[in-house]
Amino acid sequence: MIETQINEIKELLSTPQNIVIVPHKNPDGDAMGSTLGLYHYLKKYNHDATVVAPNDYPDFLKWLPGDDTVKVYESDIETCDALITKADLLFTLDFNAFHRTGEMASILENSEAIKIMIDHHQQPDDYATYTYSDVSMSSTCEMVYNFIEMLNDTDKIDTDIASCLYTGIMTDTGSFRFPSTTSRTHEVVSQLMRKGASNAQIHNNVFDTNSYSRLQLLGRAMQNLKVIPELQTTYITLSQEELDQFNFKKGDTEGFVNYGLSLKGIIFAAIFIENKQDNIIKISLRSKGSFSVNQFSRTHFNGGGHDNAAGGRSETSLEETVEKFISILPQYKDELSATQKGQ
Ligand code: 5GP
Ligand code: MN
Questions:
Q1: Number of domains the chain contains
Q2: Domain end: 184, 207, 230, which one?
Q3: 106 and 52 co-located in one domain
Q4: Does 29 contact ligand 1 (Cβ within 6 A)?
Q5: pTM for the complete prediction?
Q6: What would the pLDDT profile of 118-133 be if each residue is shown by its tens digit?
């Protein structure tokens, strides 16, 4: 962001405003951490700020400071529409195209509020008055830290803000192991720890609250794992029946796809999860090295994301979706057999 834009935003924020902060649908740790981190920051200036999430998010994020203030669009459309309609300022975080907010897309698009995008996904749409987009960033949480720093306000970061931002950096970097983690990321994390973020506690809150049924579901997912060694690819399927059998709750399948990618020699991993309620197959894709799952998902599965982590969907059956996936793979034979793991 250039200095004149920062100065304009500073000016905008110098008097109390009605502000709505929006993460993407099916919010993850980075989406909720960044929106709530920014929420706590804005509250310090007496803004009337609210995080409006398109739909509910997993229990492992429900401990985040400010969680009780979050409004969920899907469960209270009237209140959320009113908040959006009266908003002077709209922050859109961790996504860059309105369709990523599902049912909220049209009211956001038609809102006359000044819009500020903070995001690290590829190919941003051009809807915001102020766009802070950087695909090299580990996480939107790291960008919110930068944003506060650009406003010369890191002194305002307290334990609540630090805990929220730490959470999203930790989840989006796979606990600091993905290549998007830079020395700068660690510097930011160091500052957040100084401000009171408790690394062990946050890790525990997010990752060590498994239910027995989730571990059983993971077991089933691992039994369903298929390997295509010549293309250095794995995929997992989970049918609605299997999810029901193991008492599936939102967030339970988070991270499963990474097990497929952890297999020796594998550079591309997919998981296909049936959702009978929405009548779709939700797809998560992960890669190592230069094979872009963002591009793959955009081309074949109506999705997108980052080079090494993307999502998408299919409106055909689980079996047909997997068949399509397998039939597409040979087109990428050169990339999938040439790229070396970790490069
Ligand atoms: P996940 O597989 O964890 O749902 O998502 C991986 C990454 O891709 C995340 O950064 C997420 O925001 C993005 N993503 C997931 N689903 C979609 C989608 O349908 N469209 C786009 N553009 N991005 C997605
Ligand atoms: Mn993110």
A1: 2
A2: 207
A3: yes
A4: no
A5: 0.95
A6: 999 999 999 999 999 9
